[in-house]
Amino acid sequence: MSLRHGASLGMSYILYILLIIRTGLRDFVPFAVRIKEGCPSDDELEGLALRIVEEWKALGRRLNFDKSQLAGFHKDNEKCSEKAYEMLVAWKQREDTAATYTVLYEGLCHSYVSRKDLAEDICCHSD
After folding, report:
1. Which among 5, 46, 116, 124 has the fewest CB atoms less than 10 Å away?
2. What is the pLDDT of residue 20?
3. Which stretches within the chain are classed as H helix?
């Protein structure tokens, strides 16, 4: 395969392969997922928070929150979905334009979180 032919594979496919290598995805799908560009909306984050009740702390660690920050979200919110939502909104505010669908996809697909289903629902284009 020539370099020119390799370049025609498309950036999203290359990013997907790098994502597999970086996150150690074990259930490789032999086609590229199309991750959305940009940042998730607050509504999307709220919907995710409702569905990630059990794994919100593991996701928070993947999004670079330390133990004390996670404890703060836990202490300040009674419902698990609110803990998750506040953590996700804080991530989006802290990272600004770097709080992308790609970063969220990586976190959700990490072996400690194991929520590829949510990653695909929220971060990928539906075809």
Report:
1. 5
2. 64
3. 3-7, 11-23, 42-51, 56-62, 67-76, 80-95, 101-109, 116-123
Please report the pLDDT score of residue 6 as a whole number.
Answer: 44
Selection from 54, 56, 78 nearest residue 69 by Cα: 56
Please give the domain boundaries of the chain with CATH numbers for all domains. 3-123 (1.10.533.10)
Name the band, by pLDDT with cuts 50, 70 and 90, for residue 7: very low
Lowest mean pLDDT among 3-7, 94-98, 103-107: 3-7
- Amino acid identity of residue 87, one-letter, is M
**Who contacts 111 (Cβ-Cβ below 8 Å, separation ≥6)?**
23, 24, 26
